[in-house]
Amino acid sequence: MNWHGNRFNETYTFVKVSPVDWSENGTYDFITSGSIEMSDDNKYKVTGSFQFDGPELPDPNYYIRVYYSFDATNETTHKIEHAKIPLATTIISYPTKRMQETTIGMLYSGSLTASSMLKILDDKKYGQPFIIKKNLNAVYKAFELIEEFGLRVDYTPSSAVLSSDHTFSSDASHLDIVNWL
Question: For residues 162 and 139, what is the distance between their CA atoms, to the nearest angstrom?
Fold first, then answer.
């Protein structure tokens, strides 16, 4: 694949993803445009918005995975090759939505706010002081906390342990704890 050459048949696909088993359950063909921003400076790392216009509302109980696809000519074989790259999997909420009754049924339009999966960890406060004990494997504990929410994590085992106890306040989020670890 020529990753730096001319591309054609470029498309973005918005896929409905189950929060239970991460399976892909069809596409949202009525998402008409959008943007995704990836930034190390943003707490959630990935944010964005999508505009929709169609016969149904995107289901906020599902996640949206965005793929970028394109075709390119292999410089060696001169054959056309296809690439499909996942850009982000996001949770969604509705800042705006409109409904209009037409002769063919209801039409919905509006915009969605997209946030990275880290928002799930940030929204959940621990609710009581959380104590991390000395000699605890920090990386493994972070892995456990993330998996409690059914989220996927690229986990590389580490032998790093904490040199002292640490206590988080009751209003600390799971994201605060994971980032500290």
Answer: 10
Give the integer Cα–Cα distance in Å for 165 and 141.
14
- The pTM of this model reads 0.78
62, 25 Cβ separation under 8 angstroms: yes
For tokens 């050459």, name the residue.
Answer: 5
Structure tokens at 76: 């060696």
Extract the tokens encoding 74.
């292999």
Does 2 have pLDDT greater than 70?
no
Summarised one tens digit per residue, pLDDT across range 147-181 is: 988 888 888 888 889 999 999 999 999 999 999 98
d(CA 2, CA 75): 7
